[in-house]
């Protein structure tokens, strides 16, 4: 189990690094997919099978497919990473280094990490997730569903507007010879 | 542990064999429906045709286009085949078998979320087609890949909604739990007729089978996403399609046709082992019927247009699925009043 944890952790960290460092967007997306799959593996190790599967279905199976879809349609394959000027790069290194220094100073005295609750092996099972969603967290659950609904309506509105605009500005078909003859007469 | 490994190996071999012979079956069914003879040269009745086809695939030149993305071109068929083979693990192929004083369950593993696992594997399967199609660097392959992605993401919704109604009745996401519930309360097709129709239509779209085989529509896109593939890479894509067809037929049989259940078998008082074997045979008979159904539809209906496909998915199947959920929920409360 521990070996599996380290395996998944290594895959998650390495693939996450590839996501930010890869030049070509398509490699970033594939690395992100691998990262999500390894995180689903972590969920399975915690006995949260439901979360693992929903994670794969929603993030890997739907959202990342749409990412890939957009990259394919826009043909963003070329590594179009703009090179920043020298001054910007020096400033970025300085800012990052200072931030790192602050972080090191802050955690120098050590932060003790302790779980807030005792680990419960049944917490990620369908029944317990459902129970806590529909009892304890009912209001946030319903509010977020309203949020999704409004987002969906917004997308439909935007899509409709495009269609109406396109219809209004569509080029007019040239008249056929027969039609021209008829109009002359 | 070792018995599970043996079971999985047997399942793997059976899946590959069924997928290989589905290609033979498809050509025979096509021949029958078009009043032809079909393959009859390799062996008696052409029974060795799949082996000959497989050998041919291996012998052919493995061509990679110069402008293709080589890594992804290699990865595409591999993902398609792997995800297709992974799904069969959670399907209950039969009841319990007692051998040498030990009881074996004829199911690879029975996670609590079995049906979601099937969905997860299907949704990863899109990557095989998308990456392969995009990596070919060919406009027809790209169009096929984009169509496949749009189609599969859209029809997953309708499929999920039809499953929600079924899960509301059974109260479990485990596939063996769903089968046991059907044994107790009648088959899913009786409890969920509308849900079955939605699921069946979505299964056709998810497996890219006619009349929804737009991603490889040869009249518009040459070969669709696998235009540039040759040799065993092409073989993997074709094989993955037949494996998916086998698995989705098995899932349809499990969810809506009682899985390994044979009505009235328990009244005969047979030996439990014999009953289990008859159950496995029944499961395979149901699965093979649906494989035949897939072929039957392919050779008797014309292809949809892509916008018609999208309209069917978003404007017909999803509203129908939501209606089915409402209907099931109301029935859940009305039933005790009508039949106390």
- Low-pLDDT runs of chain A: none
Largest interface: A-B, 22 and 26 residues
Number of strands of chain B: 2
Instruction: Classify the helix fraction of chain B into a percent range.
Output: 55-70%
What features would you describe in this structure?
The complex is a heterodimer of chains A (185) and B (340). The longest helix of chain A has 31 residues. Chain A contains seven helices and no strands. Chain A is mostly helical and 185 residues long. The model of chain A has no long low-confidence stretch (mean pLDDT 82). The radius of gyration of chain A is 26 Å and the shape is extended. With 340 residues, chain B is mainly alpha-helical. Helices cover 69% and strands 2% of the residues of chain B. Chain B is built from twelve helices and two strands; from the N terminus they run αααββααααααααα. A two-stranded antiparallel ribbon of chain B has the order 1-2. In chain B, helix 5 runs antiparallel to helix 8. The radius of gyration of chain B is 21 Å and the shape is globular. The model of chain B has no long low-confidence stretch (mean pLDDT 84). At the A-B interface, helix 2 and helix 3 of A face helix 4 and helix 5 of B.
């Amino acid at each position: 189990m521990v070996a599996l944890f380290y395996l998944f952790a290594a895959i998650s960290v390495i693939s996450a690094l590839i996501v930010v460092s890869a030049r070509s967007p398509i490699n970033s997306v594939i690395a992100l997919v691998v990262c999500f799959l390894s995180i689903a593996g972590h969920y399975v190790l915690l006995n949260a099978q439901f979360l693992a599967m929903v994670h794969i279905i929603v993030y890997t199976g739907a959202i990342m497919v749409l990412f890939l879809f957009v990259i394919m349609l826009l043909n963003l394959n070329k590594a179009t990473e703009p090179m920043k000027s020298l001054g910007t790069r020096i400033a970025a290194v300085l800012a990052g280094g200072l931030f790192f220094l602050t972080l090191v100073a802050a955690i120098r005295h050590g932060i003790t990490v302790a779980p807030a609750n005792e680990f419960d092996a049944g917490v990620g099972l369908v029944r317990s997730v459902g129970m806590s969603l529909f009892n304890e967290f009912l209001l946030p659950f319903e509010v977020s569903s309203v949020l999704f609904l409004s987002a969906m309506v917004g997308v439909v509105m935007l899509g409709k507007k495009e269609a109406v605009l396109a219809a209004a500005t569509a080029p007019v078909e040239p008249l056929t010879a027969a039609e021209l003859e008829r109009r002359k007469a | 542990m070792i018995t599970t490994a043996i079971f999985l190996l047997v399942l793997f071999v059976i899946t590959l064999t069924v997928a290989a012979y589905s290609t033979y079956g498809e050509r025979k069914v096509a021949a029958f429906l078009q009043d032809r003879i079909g393959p009859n040269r390799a062996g008696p009745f052409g029974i060795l045709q799949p082996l000959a086809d497989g050998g041919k695939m291996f012998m052919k030149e493995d061509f990679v286009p110069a402008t293709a993305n080589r890594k992804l071109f290699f990865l595409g068929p591999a993902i398609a085949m792997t995800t297709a083979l992974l799904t069969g693990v959670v399907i209950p192929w039969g009841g319990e078998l007692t051998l040498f004083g030990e009881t074996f369950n004829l199911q690879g593993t029975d996670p609590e979320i079995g049906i979601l696992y099937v969905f997860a594997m299907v949704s990863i399967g899109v990557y095989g087609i998308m990456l392969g199609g995009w990596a070919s660097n060919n406009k027809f392959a790209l169009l096929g890949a984009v169509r496949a992605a749009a189609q599969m993401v859209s029809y997953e919704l309708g499929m999920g909604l039809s499953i929600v109604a079924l899960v509301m009745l059974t109260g479990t996401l485990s596939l063996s739990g769903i089968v046991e519930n059907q044994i107790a309360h009648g088959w899913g097709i009786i409890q969920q007729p509308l849900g079955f129709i939605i699921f069946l239509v979505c299964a056709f779209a998810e497996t890219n089978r006619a009349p929804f085989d737009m991603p490889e529509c040869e009249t518009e896109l040459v070969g669709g996403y696998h235009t540039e593939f040759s040799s065993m890479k092409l073989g993997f894509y074709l094989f993955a399609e037949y494996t998916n067809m086998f698995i989705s037929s098995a899932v349809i049989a499990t969810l809506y046709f009682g899985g390994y259940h044979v009505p009235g078998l328990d009244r005969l008082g047979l030996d439990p082992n014999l009953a289990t074997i008859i159950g496995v045979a029944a499961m395979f008979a149901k699965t093979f019927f649906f494989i035949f159904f897939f072929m039957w539809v392919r050779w008797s209906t014309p292809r949809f247009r892509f916008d018609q496909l999208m309209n069917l998915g978003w404007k017909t199947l999803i509203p129908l699925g939501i209606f089915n959920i409402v209907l099931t929920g109301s029935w859940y409360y009305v039933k005790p009043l009508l039949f106390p």
